[in-house]
Write a structure and sequence with these properties.
Elements lengths: L1 E10 L2 E7 L3 E6 L5 H14 L7 H6 L4 H4 L10 E9 L2 E12 L7 E10 L2 E6 L2 H5 L19 H8 L2 E3 L3 H5 L1 H4 L13 H7 L2 H18 L3 E8 L6 E7 L8 E3 L5 H15 L4 E4 L7 H4 L2 H11 L6 E4 L3 H4 L9 E5 L6 E3 L3 H8 L4 H4 L16
Helix pairs in contact: 1-5, 9-10
């Protein structure tokens, strides 16, 4: 199942936008235009869908409250609304829409203003219901988060709940024991990445590491082998890599000796192999050589072709190297543009598509439109 269409009202930077999404979607835009906020829509739906330790109220509170979520350009309309259409094959299978807003009196609770579920054109849920009107406290929760009410559309809740977001910060992984501190829920920065690897059945884990090792041989000089290891004293999981060395047993290194780029590439490849749920990648080009970055679209295509159930991937990027790959389908490119009424989202326009058809890359035709007009003035600061 993939997200085929997204519509937002008053969500962060976006006052009113709609966008079609592809199996692999590249999201481009200037700094602070709203790329991360667009991805956060799906993290928000994931957080709502948790039957334990989640839900609407916590998802809003974790983001600083409704005032931080609602678009500054919303003016008089207080409602925030998210609508998604989900495809299974070529058929539109599900439509889910959620609206919420402050109560407007007393305790200022956040209430569900609307919640709809459609399945193949048949309406399953339409809130508020009579029960909601009789007991307004019911509107503090979505049906998506309640297992006793979502039986008919639990497939949606499970789909959103399985969403993966990974923006691995190598230093948090390398020095996690020394840094200490609290790990964020869902571990978006990869502090618990090694535990995720360790949690897989040994045969599955080792098979994936062999696949990843073959890829790393092409990208990392002198790299020969990747393996799982566990500290015999502390029980802490580790990854180790063997590099070509004149002494046979001297070429092994643990993850705290890996380069930042090697760790980020390893985590990217693992995430691609890990499942078939929605995968959110933020600037995967960081710490990587441009020659490797150019191959990221190819790696995505290969993994998706090999998988029985393809994984939808949404990627934010500024990278000219990544977008220079000729294999990128322009239909999967979205551009976020800023304006006086908030950010808007568009696909590739005709002039850009004509240039791409003529042999130019997305980096040459689309990326320049995302660059700030006054960026050159920074050189005079």
């Amino acid at each position: 199942m993939i997200v085929a269409h997204l519509a937002l009202k008053n969500w962060r930077n976006f006052r009113d936008v709609e966008a079609d999404l592809s199996e692999t979607t590249y999201i481009l835009g200037a700094n602070a235009s709203g790329k991360s906020n667009l991805l956060d829509v799906f993290r928000f739906l994931r957080d709502i869908s948790k039957s334990q330790g989640g839900g609407l109220q916590k998802a809003i509170a974790d983001r600083g409250g409704i005032s931080k979520l609602r678009c500054l350009h919303a003016r008089r309309d207080p409602e925030v609304r998210i609508e998604v259409m989900l495809l299974d094959g070529e058929e539109t299978k599900w439509r889910y829409a959620l609206g919420f807003k402050p109560e407007g009196k007393g305790a200022q609770r956040i209430l569900v203003s609307s919640e709809q579920v459609m399945h193949n054109g048949r309406q399953i849920l339409n809130r508020p219901t009579k029960e909601d009107e009789q007991d307004e406290t019911r509107r503090t929760q979505t049906h998506l988060e309640q297992i006793q009410t979502n039986a008919e559309f639990r497939e949606i809740a499970e789909f959103f709940g399985d969403t993966t977001y990974l923006h691995l910060v190598p230093q948090l992984l390398k020095f996690g024991e020394r840094i200490g501190g609290q790990r964020l829920e869902d571990d978006p920065f990869g502090q618990g990445f090694l535990e995720r690897v360790a949690s897989k059945p040994p045969r599955t884990r080792d098979a994936r590491l062999v696949q990843i090792g073959e890829a790393l041989k092409q990208a990392v000089p002198q790299f020969e082998q990747l393996a799982f290891d566990k500290d015999t004293i502390t029980g802490r999981p580790h990854l180790k890599a063997r590099y070509a060395h004149h002494r046979p047993h001297a070429g092994w290194q643990r993850e705290d000796q890996f380069s930042d780029g090697t760790l980020r590439l390893l985590a990217l490849l693992w995430s691609l192999l890990e499942g078939n749920s929605l995968l959110l990648l933020e600037e995967p080009e960081l710490s990587l050589n441009d020659a490797i970055v150019r191959q990221i679209p190819v790696m995505l295509q290969r993994v998706q072709r090999r998988s029985k159930k393809r994984r939808q991937v949404l990627i934010t990027t500024h990278s000219e190297a990544l977008l220079s790959n000729p294999g990128i389908d322009a239909r999967g490119v979205l551009v976020i543009e800023t304006g006086s009424n908030g950010s808007t989202v568009r696909g590739v326009i005709k002039e850009e598509q004509d240039a791409i058809d003529a042999g130019f890359s997305v980096a040459e035709t689309v990326l320049p439109s995302t660059r700030p007009e006054s960026a050159d003035q920074l050189g005079f600061w």
